[in-house]
Design a protein that fits this description.
single chain; alpha/beta; Rossmann fold; 7 strands; 38% helix; 16% strand
Length: 200
C-alpha cells in the first residue's frame, strides 16, 4: 500500500467516546507515517476529528465535497486542499482516484454507502486496494454479521469477507492493510458456475 488513505466517517461523534478517540489515533498514525488523508471535507463529527489530528501534526489532508454542500456540511477551512466536485457519485470517484486504500470509521448511512460501493467495486474487480474497518467498540459487528447473512443465504460468496481488513486497533489495522494481498474470489454468480444457467 502506498501513501494516501481515504477515510469514510460519520459527520456526528456518536454515543461512545471511543469512536473519537480511535479516529484521532488513526489520524496521528497517518500523519506520523507521512501519509496523506483523503476524506469528505467536513469539519464536524468523526470526519473533523481525524482531519484536525492529521493537520495538527503537520500532515496533508484533502477534502472532497460536492458543490452546494460546502455550507451544509460545514466544510473544513484549514485543509491542505478542498476539491469541489459535481455530485455525490463524483465525490466517491474522486476519492477512489486519490486513494491507495480505504478505511471506514463508525458512521451512518452515508458512511455505509461509501463503504459498500467501494466494496462492491472490489468484488467485481474494478480495484484491488485494501479496505479496512476500524471496528471501534465492535461498531461494525452487525454489518459483518449482515454480510455473513448474505453469504449464508447464497447471495454472496464466502471469499467476499476477505476483501475487508478488520481491527479495533488503528495501528494494527494499518499494518494489516500494508500487508494486504487481494484474495482470490469465488464465483459471484452461482448459476453460472459451470458456464451455463442451472435452473432449479
Amino acid at each position: 500500500m502506498s501513501k494516501s488513505i481515504c477515510v469514510y466517517a460519520g459527520s456526528n461523534l456518536g454515543t461512545d467516546p471511543e469512536y473519537a478517540k480511535k479516529a484521532a489515533k488513526l489520524g496521528e498514525i497517518i500523519a506520523r507515517k507521512g501519509w496523506r488523508l483523503v476524506y469528505g471535507g467536513s469539519s464536524i463529527g468523526l470526519m473533523g476529528v481525524i482531519a484536525d489530528r492529521v493537520l495538527s501534526l503537520g500532515g496533508k489532508v484533502i477534502g472532497v465535497m460536492p458543490r452546494g454542500m460546502i455550507l451544509g456540511e460545514m466544510a473544513h477551512a484549514g485543509l491542505t486542499e478542498l476539491l469541489e466536485v459535481d455530485g455525490m457519485h463524483a465525490r466517491k470517484e474522486k476519492m477512489n482516484e486519490l486513494a491507495d486504500g480505504f478505511i471506514a470509521l463508525p458512521g451512518g448511512i452515508g458512511t455505509f454507502d461509501e463503504l459498500f460501493e467501494i466494496l462492491c467495486w472490489a468484488q467485481i474487480g474494478l480495484h484491488h486496494k485494501p479496505i479496512g474497518l476500524l471496528n471501534a467498540d465492535g461498531y461494525f459487528d452487525p454489518l459483518i454479521s449482515l454480510i455473513q447473512h448474505s453469504i449464508d443465504h447464497q447471495f454472496a460468496d464466502q471469499s467476499n469477507l476477505n476483501l475487508l481488513t478488520v481491527s479495533s486497533d488503528p495501528e494494527l489495522l494499518l499494518k494489516k492493510m500494508e500487508n494486504y494481498v487481494p484474495p482470490k474470489l469465488g464465483n459471484k454468480w452461482r448459476q453460472l458456475s459451470k458456464g451455463t444457467l442451472e435452473h432449479k
